[in-house]
Design goal:
Largest sheet: 6 strands, mixed
Strand content: 5-15%
Radius of gyration: 26 Å
Family: Belongs to the glycosyl hydrolase 3 family.
Catalytic activity: Hydrolysis of terminal, non-reducing beta-D-glucosyl residues with release of beta-D-glucose
Strand order of the largest sheet: 12-17-16-15-13-14
Number of strands: 17
InterPro entries: Cellulose_Degrad_GH3, GH, Glyco_hydro_3_AS, Glyco_hydro_3_C, Glyco_hydro_3_C_sf, Glyco_hydro_3_N, Glyco_hydro_3_N_sf
Protein name: beta-glucosidase
Oligomer: single chain
Number of helices: 20
Domain Glycoside hydrolase family 3 N-terminal: 45-379
Structural class: alpha/beta
């Protein structure tokens, strides 16, 4: 019997070793990530490597998902408003898993990375928790809350399939005429650096937690200087400032525009960074001309990768390389050699693959550059655990839009409110007869702003669930009259509340001068005049992504509150109005007296804003 066992054991040893030898090292989860990357890279053809560097929009491949396999695509994304036909958590997960099955059908079974813009919650998904935009979160001065918010966002996002978010924006907004001002935490680089806790909310502890079902790969954007471009320098269509030129000297660029990325890399170990559409032109270098960031080898490779030590993925912005000089081959070659690793080529993935292969074969792009790019991409995929668990872990799907998640969003709304004036009007009392005016009092879409369900966002209350500011007020007080245009009689009211503000926009579409202004609308002005002229005290709330010009109206108000873009939980505004929670928010940007005063920032010579950076009255509960 003993001899038989020994014989059996001896006969199985070679078989076990044979199986181990047949399993590629890159599929062995016990090995270090660096070893797995090296092993897999050594097995890949040039075409497979270039495929990994390519990201396509789901709309371009959905009807022919075989392209994922034939091109060996490394990534697919949903642009703003790009969703499955049925915009539900399960449909999202089914969609991403379908794409993943085609990636796993490739020769080496390399899983797909799926990216999405979760910039204030999983905004593309109907039913997700929609948080205040970053400009409001900056006003909270609460880095721990920001980390918690992005952990929730990561949880809701990954439960529906995407493992990669194009957030947070760590730009420093230096000109409120910029249409992306609300995506910035503020005008002071020190504040933005504090709020890079967002990255840890998304990713957890560096690469250690990325494989967890409640974490995603984060993207610090837009490197670097996109909030600091000079008004009038944009050459993109009708944009006035977005995608323009940052005209600066090295010291200012380092202290203001670059600083948050140093923190993002060195302290937060951010997994990816997205170069900006904007350009840099140096004032301290004679003969300097604007260079698009996608072509800036000095800033992408020499500074970011080598000096700062970034070891993650550089992902280009939407068709960004198409803005570079020259023909398409020149654009591809320039951007790859500058240091970009993955290319967001939403509708030209096949052309990109073919072009880059040709450039390498012609010797115009070194193989070492390709290997560096692909190594970074594979590292992210291994750390995300995609080789072991490529399909969506749906265990957290029921937490999406949960009571607990919305409670955190409501807390964020309350903490973000900035009380700029109060002459005995606040807090309101539940017993008062309250007259509420203004479209933005009862419009979820306006309250959430851009990047909500669709790219530009949209007015109205039909596209996603939530609570409007009016509904929050109605929950707190029984006697509330609402009149959007202030046409209802005001007689008998104890207090007036006028909600003014902006309608949704995103990116350069929202630039001042591109159909937008910092001035409040004639309708809002009329509502202030009518309600504040008839009812004392009168409270005005501003629901907007940036300061608006209220200089001439301020004297008519007894209280003035900046509500920013609060998202889906308008009851958080009511919480501070009625004193359930104290006002603690501080301005994350300087408030101009006039549009002509822009750009105005803390530290400027002759600094004279209407309200200074950091201003905000506090109240007790």
């Amino acid at each position: 019997m003993v001899l038989a066992v020994l014989a059996l054991t001896a006969s199985t040893v070679p078989a076990t070793q044979a199986v181990a030898a047949a399993t590629p090292a890159y599929l062995d989860a016990e090995r270090p990530v660096a070893q797995r990357v090296s092993d897999l890279l050594g097995r890949m053809t040039l075409a497979e490597k270039v495929g990994q560097m390519t990201q396509a929009e789901r709309g371009a491949i959905d009807s022919d998902q075989g392209q994922i396999t034939s091109l060996a695509l490394g990534s697919v994304l949903s642009g703003g408003g790009s969703t499955p036909a049925e915009n539900t958590p399960a449909a999202w997960a089914d969609m991403v898993d379908s794409y993943q099955s085609h990636a796993l059908a490739t020769r080496l079974h390399i899983p797909l990375l799926y990216g999405v813009d979760s910039v204030h919650g999983h905004g593309n998904l109907v039913g997700a928790t929609i948080f205040p935009h970053n400009i409001g979160l900056g006003a909270t001065r609460d880095p721990q809350l920001v980390e918690t918010i992005e952990h929730i966002t990561a949880t809701e996002t990954r439960a529906t399939g995407p493992q990669w978010v194009f957030a947070p924006c760590v730009c420093v907004a230096r000109d409120d005429r910029w249409g992306r001002t609300y995506e910035s935490f503020g005008e002071d680089p020190a504040l933005v650096q504090q709020m890079t806790t967002a990255i840890e909310g998304f990713q957890g502890d560096g690469g250690k937690d990325l494989a967890d079902s409640d974490r995603v790969l984060a993207t610090a954007k837009h490197y670097a200087g996109d909030g600091d471009t000079t008004y009038g320098t944009s050459t993109n269509g009708t944009y006035t400032i977005d995608q323009g030129v940052t005209i600066t000297d090295w010291q200012h660029f380092q202290q203001v525009d670059l600083a948050p990325y140093v923190t993002a890399v060195k302290q937060r170990d951010v997994g990816s960074i997205m170069p900006s559409f904007s350009s840099v032109q140096w004032t301290d270098r004679p003969g300097s001309v604007p260079v698009k960031m996608s072509a800036n080898k000095e800033l992408l490779t020499d500074v970011l990768k080598q000096k700062i030590g970034f070891d993650g993925v550089l992902i280009s912005d939407w068709e960004a390389i198409h803005q570079l000089p020259g023909d398409y081959a020149t654009q591809v070659r320039t951007a790859v050699n500058a240091g970009i690793d993955m290319f967001m080529e939403p509708y030209s993935a096949p052309q990109f693959v073919q072009t880059l292969i040709s450039e390498v074969q012609a010797g115009r792009v070194p193989m070492a550059r390709i290997d560096d790019a692909v190594s970074r991409i594979l590292k992210a995929k291994f750390e995300l655990g995609l080789f072991e668990h490529p399909y969506t872990d749906r265990s957290n799907i029921k937490t999406i839009g949960s009571v607990q998640h919305r409670a955190v969003a409501r807390q964020a709304v309350a903490e973000s409110q900035v009380l700029l004036k109060n002459q005995g009007a606040l807090p309101l009392k539940p017993s008062q007869k309250i007259y509420v005016a203004g479209v933005n009092a009862n419009d979820l879409g306006n309250q959430a702003g851009g990047w909500t369900v669709t790219w530009q966002g949209q007015s109205g209350n039909t596209s996603f669930p939530g609570t409007t500011i009016l509904q929050g007020i109605q929950q707190a007080a029984k006697n509330v009259t609402y009149s959007a245009d202030a046409s209802a009689p005001t007689a008998g009211s104890d207090v007036g509340v006028v909600v003014i503000g902006e309608t949704p926009y995103a990116e350069g579409v929202g630039d001042v001068g591109n159909g937008h202004t910092l001035d409040i609308s004639p309708a809002d002005r009329a509502n202030i005049d009518k309600v504040c002229g008839a009812i004392k005290p009168c409270v005005v709330l501003d629901v907007a992504g940036r300061p608006q010009i209220v200089t001439d109206e301020l004297s008519k108000m007894d209280a003035f509150v900046m509500s920013w873009l609060p998202g889906s939980e308008g009851a958080g505004v009511a919480d501070v109005l009625f004193g359930k929670k104290p006002f603690t928010g501080k301005l994350s940007v300087s408030w101009p007296r006039s549009e002509a005063q822009e750009p105005i920032n803390i530290g400027d010579r002759n600094y004279d804003p209407l309200f200074p950076y950091g201003y905000g009255l506090t109240t007790r509960r």
